[in-house]
Design brief:
By secondary structure, this protein is of the alpha+beta class. The chain is built from twelve helices and 18 strands.
C-alpha cells in the first residue's frame, strides 16, 4: 500500500519533485566538484613535495652552514701548473660539499635509533665546478728607435749608456687565456638503501641502478636532462678530479625536474669531496606518519645543532598559482559549497512544506479514513527521500562531469619552492629531495586533476539522504498537525 501510494503521488507531482531534486542535485554537484578539486590540489602539492623530498621520506636532518672565518674569502679558487709551452691546455675540478655543514656519518645510526624512527639514510651533496681551457703565452718585443730618441741609458743594467742603434724597453705582445666553466651537482648515495633518500624519487629509464656491492665501484647514474645536455648514454665515461666514472643508468624523476645531475656511491663522493665519514643530509622515515611532529621534537632534543625539516615545513615554502588555487579550494570553495548545500536543503524543505500545505484535503481525508499521524508523516518523508535520492543521483552525475571537465581543460599550475632556512632545508637534492636549496627558487609546472573518490561518492549519497530527511521532516511535521476538519473546510 505504501509503495503504491508513493508511486502514484510522485507521478502526480512530477514537476514539484523534479524542482526539489534539481535543487539538491546542484548543491551535491558543487560539493563533489569542490571536494575533487581540493583532492587534486593536495595531490599536486604531494607531487611537488615528493619531487623535493623523495618517496618514503618523512623528514630530513641537516646542519646550518657555519659563518666563514675572518680572512677567508670563501670564493672558488683554482690552481694550474705552470708549463713552458706557448699554448697549454689546463683543466681543474673544484669539488665542494653543498647544502649546509657536514655531519658525521655516525649521526645516521644515532638518528635511526631515535624513538619513532623506522629508518635513516645519509647522503652527501657535492657541487663540482670544472674550469678548462688554455693559456697562450705572449712574446716580448723591443721597439727600435733612432739614437736621438734614445735615452742616455741611465738605469739600464750595468749603468752603461745606450748605443745609437739600441732599442726601447721590451714589451709583451699577444697571449691571453680562453676558459670554459661548467658547474654541476653530484650526490653520493648509500647504494645499500636506495629505497629511502636521493634515488627514491627517480625512475631508471635506461640501464640499471647501483647494486649493494658497488660501494667503491666507479659507476654513476645520470639524470635524463643532464644526459641529454652532455649527450651521455649508458656506457659513456666522464672524469671528476681525474677519477673516471662509467655511466650505468639514466634516471628520470617521477615528477617535475631533478636538480641533481649525477649520482655516485657515497664512499666515492666522500673521497672526492674530502669529506671522509661525512654526510650533508640524513633522510628519515618515521614508523607512524601521524607522529612526524613528535619524532621531529625527539631528534631535535637528543641531537643538538641539527635542523629537522618535515614535509609540513616544506609545504609552507611552496608558493605560486598552485598555492593560491589550493587556498581558494580549501577556504572559499569549502564555505561556498556549504552555503549552497544549506540553501539547497532549505529550498527543498520549504518546497516540500509548501506542497504539503496544498494537500490539506488529501491528508485530512486520509486521517478521516483512519490514518494515524505517524503514517501520514511516513508518507511525506518517503516522498522526500525519493526526491533526495533522485537529486543525489543527478548531483553525482553533474559533479563527476564537472570534475572530469576540470581535469580536461584546467591549465597547468606553477609552484615555486623557496628555502626553508637554517642553511639546510629540503631542496636542491635529487629530484629536489636533498640537502641545501640554493638561494634561487625552483619553479615547477603541475597539471591539475580533480579525482573523484569513492569517499566523495559516499558523501554525496549521505547528503542526498540527509536532504531528503530534512525536507521530509519539515513536511511531515506540518502534515501531522492537520485535522480531518481541515479537509472539510477546504471543500468549496
Amino acid at each position: 500500500m505504501f509503495g503504491i501510494y508513493l508511486k502514484r503521488e510522485l507521478g502526480r507531482r512530477k514537476k514539484a519533485a523534479l524542482v526539489i531534486a534539481l535543487g539538491l542535485a546542484l548543491g551535491i554537484a558543487l560539493v563533489i566538484t569542490v571536494s575533487s578539486v581540493s583532492a587534486g590540489m593536495s595531490k599536486a602539492q604531494d607531487k611537488v613535495l615528493q619531487s623535493l623530498y623523495g618517496l618514503g621520506t618523512d623528514m630530513t636532518v641537516t646542519k646550518a652552514q657555519s659563518a666563514p672565518t675572518s680572512g677567508s674569502s670563501g670564493g672558488p679558487s683554482f690552481k694550474f701548473g705552470a708549463k713552458s709551452s706557448s699554448s697549454t691546455k689546463q683543466s681543474s675540478d673544484r669539488v665542494m660539499t653543498q647544502g649546509g655543514q657536514a655531519l658525521k656519518s655516525s649521526l645516521v645510526t644515532k638518528v635511526a635509533s631515535q624513538k619513532g624512527v623506522e629508518n635513516a639514510v645519509g647522503a652527501l651533496s657535492l657541487n663540482v665546478t670544472k674550469v678548462d681551457g688554455s693559456f697562450t703565452q705572449g712574446k716580448a718585443k723591443t721597439t727600435t728607435g733612432s739614437s736621438s730618441n734614445s735615452s742616455s741609458g741611465q738605469g739600464q743594467p750595468g749603468g752603461g749608456s745606450g748605443s745609437s742603434s739600441g732599442g726601447g724597453q721590451p714589451q709583451v705582445q699577444g697571449g691571453g687565456a680562453n676558459f670554459n666553466v661548467n658547474s654541476y651537482s653530484v650526490v653520493g648515495v648509500d647504494v645499500a638503501h636506495q629505497g629511502l633518500g636521493p634515488l627514491a624519487s627517480m625512475k631508471i629509464t635506461s640501464g640499471r641502478t647501483f647494486t649493494s656491492s658497488q660501494t667503491g665501484t666507479k659507476v654513476a647514474v645520470v639524470s635524463k636532462s643532464y644526459a641529454k645536455e652532455k649527450k651521455y648514454k649508458v656506457g659513456s665515461t666522464f672524469k671528476i678530479s681525474g677519477t673516471k666514472f662509467t655511466i650505468i643508468g639514466i634516471a628520470t624523476p617521477d615528477s617535475s625536474e631533478s636538480t641533481t645531475d649525477l649520482f655516485i656511491p657515497l664512499k666515492l663522493a666522500q673521497t672526492l669531496g674530502d669529506a671522509k665519514n661525512e654526510v650533508t643530509t640524513i633522510y628519515v622515515k618515521a614508523t607512524d606518519s601521524k607522529q612526524i611532529s613528535t619524532v621531529k621534537k625527539e631528534i631535535q632534543s637528543n641531537i643538538s645543532g641539527t635542523t629537522v625539516t618535515t614535509s609540513a615545513d616544506l609545504a609552507s615554502t611552496v608558493s605560486g598559482s598552485l598555492s593560491t588555487a589550493s587556498s581558494l579550494a580549501t577556504s572559499v570553495g569549502k564555505w561556498l559549497s556549504i552555503a549552497v548545500l544549506a540553501a539547497a536543503f532549505l529550498v527543498a524543505a520549504l518546497l516540500t512544506s509548501s506542497a504539503v500545505s496544498r494537500r490539506v484535503r488529501e491528508f485530512g481525508t486520509l486521517k478521516a479514513l483512519g490514518w494515524p499521524s505517524r503514517k501520514v508523516t511516513r508518507q511525506v518523508v518517503g516522498e522526500s527521500m525519493v526526491n533526495g535520492l533522485i537529486g543525489g543521483a543527478l548531483g553525482i552525475a553533474l559533479g563527476v562531469g564537472a570534475a572530469y571537465a576540470v581535469t580536461a581543460i584546467s591549465p597547468k599550475l606553477t609552484a615555486q619552492m623557496g628555502s626553508t632556512g637554517g642553511g639546510g632545508g629540503m631542496g636542491g637534492g635529487p629530484g629536489g629531495g636533498g640537502p641545501g636549496q640554493q638561494s634561487t627558487q625552483n619553479t615547477l609546472e603541475i597539471a591539475l586533476t580533480a579525482p573523484v573518490s569513492l569517499t566523495t561518492i559516499a558523501l554525496a549519497v549521505g547528503l542526498a539522504v540527509a536532504g531528503g530527511l530534512i525536507a521530509g521532516a519539515m513536511g511531515g511535521w506540518r502534515a501531522s498537525r492537520m485535522r480531518p476538519a481541515d479537509a472539510l473546510r477546504s471543500v468549496s
